[in-house]
Amino acid sequence: MDFNKYLVFLFVFVLLSCDKDEKEEILFDELRNGYLVLNEGLFQHNNSTVSWLDKNEEQSISDIFLRKSGRNLGDTGNDMKRYGGKIYIAVTTSSTLEIQDARTFENLRQIKLHYQGVAQQPRNMVFHSGKVYISSFDGFINVIDTMTYAIERIPVGKNPDHLVIAENTLLVSNSGGLNFPEMDSTVFAIDLSTHQLTDSFVIGKNPGSIVYDGNNGAYVVRRGNYSNIPSELFYIDLVSKSVESMGVAASSLVVHHNNMYVVDFNSTTHDATVSTFDLVTKTITTNQTLNFENHVQTFYGLFPQDDGSFLVLDAMSFTNQGFLRFFDENGTYQKSVRCGLNPTKLIKYD
Questions:
Q1: DSSP element (H, E) containing 22
Q2: CA 97 distance to own-chain centroid
Q3: Which of 263, 254, 232 is nearest to 245 (CA)?
């Protein structure tokens, strides 16, 4: 190639590269028509990220948190939720809560969750009356005012994990997972007006995912000991205070309108079966695999959509970059978009 042709080629290459960069930068001005995905990363590798997936471009912006905040997110991002005009991200091993502007994703504040020099390891979040309630593995619920950022602590059981709001009650799954094999077995009920314990329900070893049925009842997964005590779905009647087994294998729960989706994940094969559970009749209405065996290597999250379709997060054996998989209302695979390492939570933007 002669020198003049080389200069023309170089000019065109740089011009195209600039256009591409400028196009990506536009996506960062305001989040809309896409998905935020929290990527957990690997434990003790300090490599959690947040991906932005644009619906129109169908491309992944690998780490919008780094681009917007100028620093890494931290170690083991576990939960991400939107409340009002803010996005909240609980980063477990780093023991931090990151608060982002929901429109621009600019970082508003980082709260370090340490108490008397001990890392609290925040896990999951729910919101009520201007407060964020965060389960923390040190045995407390952190209650943070979303305006003043003042913090209150509520003592609960061992290694509290999943949370749900049931009218004026906070239900807390006390997993005790860090005390294996002597795990906790309780679900606590906390009055949201007084922040006092009102009830305790015995579920069995390692309570996990929990949802409210909207009619004075809650469903909770007893995860067991991953050996001779299998995972199973339980029902709590919040009026009679009774607990009963539903006789259904379950590893996680997702509620969408009147349906609860019961996920049974096989930790050995990484396959998952999704059952649709009618909250009114308390029965399974459908049982499908959504073609997981062909298109999802490691199931890591289910997100039902209003049009009946499903979004599924695939962790790809926990060692490779994951994918957001799209399935239609019949469970037929549609497409995939790459995200980060171990994608675990998703927020949709219209």
A1: helix 3-27
A2: 14
A3: 232
